[in-house]
Amino acid sequence: MPSDRKTLIADTAIALLACAGSRGLTHRAVDAEAGLPAGSTSAYCRTRAELVSLALTRHAALDLADLEGDASGWARSALTPERFVDTLSRRIEDWLTPAKRARLVARFELFLIASREPELAAVVAEQRSRFVQAAVGALRAAGIERPESVAPGLVMTVDGMLLDQVAELNRPLSTAQRKAVLARAIGHGG
């Protein structure tokens, strides 16, 4: 359980988005699901947009923490394009496990909500830039040419792959297929 109330509210909002969709995300529902007194969520997030923004920011922080954990293993030995692709493939596979799939569903719910609200679209753009910058650093470490040009496409490729796999439960990509797509995205494969 998160140690602070704001994190608890954000995590609960993510869980509600995953199981009930955007219509299920209300201040009252967050209070009830989190076991908080009525009005607690409203004290932290006065509007729905603030609640969604909090969930977006928390979601990005969780995903970036996963990626930073992966990158910490790279410090022990040289990062090659193959090793980068392998690590990213395993990260995607982990995000698709039943334990983390709900977080992915929430991710795409958040993207859809933000697509209709410019204030939230700006939050998505800000968080996405953090992922692109993380990708630039990893690609540079792996020796990929023009990492600033490659990184945005890689982030889009990963998002597309995740969306496809969430929507197509009965057609999971094999590890080899996933690695081939990622290798092409970084310009290191057929």
Structure description:
- With 190 residues, the protein is mostly helical.
- It has a domain at 55-185: Orthogonal Bundle (Tetracycline Repressor, domain 2).
- 75% of the residues lie in helices and 0% in strands.
- The chain has nine helices and no strands.
- It has helices at 5-20, 27-34, 40-44, 48-72, 81-95, 98-115, 118-141, 147-167, 175-185.
- The relative contact order is 0.12.
- The mean pLDDT is 93.
Write the layout of secondary structure elements.
Blueprint: H1 5-20, H2 27-34, H3 40-44, H4 48-72, H5 81-95, H6 98-115, H7 118-141, H8 147-167, H9 175-185
Helix pairs in contact: 1-2, 1-4, 1-6, 4-6, 4-7, 5-9, 6-7, 7-8, 8-9
Concise summary:
This protein is mainly alpha-helical and 190 residues long. The chain is built from 9 helices and no strands.
Keywords:
single chain, 190 residues, mainly alpha, Tetracycline Repressor, domain 2, 9 helices, 75% helix, 0% strand, elongated
User: Roughly what fraction of the amino acids lie in strands?
Assistant: under 5%
CATH topology of one domain: Tetracycline Repressor, domain 2
Distance between the termini: 45 Å
Low-confidence stretches: none
